[in-house]
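Appendix B. One record, verbatim.
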Amino acid sequence: MNAPLPPYGGLLGLCDGPGGEMRMPFSPGLIGAPGRLHGGAIAGLLELVAHRTVLEAIGAGVQLKPINVTVDFLREGRLEDVMAAATILRLGRRVANVRAEAWQADRARPIAAARLNILVVRPA
């Protein structure tokens, strides 16, 4: 199951990559400082891949709301595609704890990592 992306995901041009990864293709609209990707676009990618990972683990019919998101920018994002993947650290009844990473050429050298606590709102 590939959970649908919100409109912001379409604005970033996000698409599915292999093995549950998400890809953000480079476009000039993603440039922040000259020669670098905008940090907000990278953070948005990390949040959306985390949400999708939780939705795919739980199934349809729940609503997710971020409680907190902490992003560590580890190196500059070059003007090229970015890949991201998320891992659920704990999935409770009401809260999911997730780690997400974004990389470019080498997955072992992430450009950013995020820790997210996500509220899971289940139907009554």
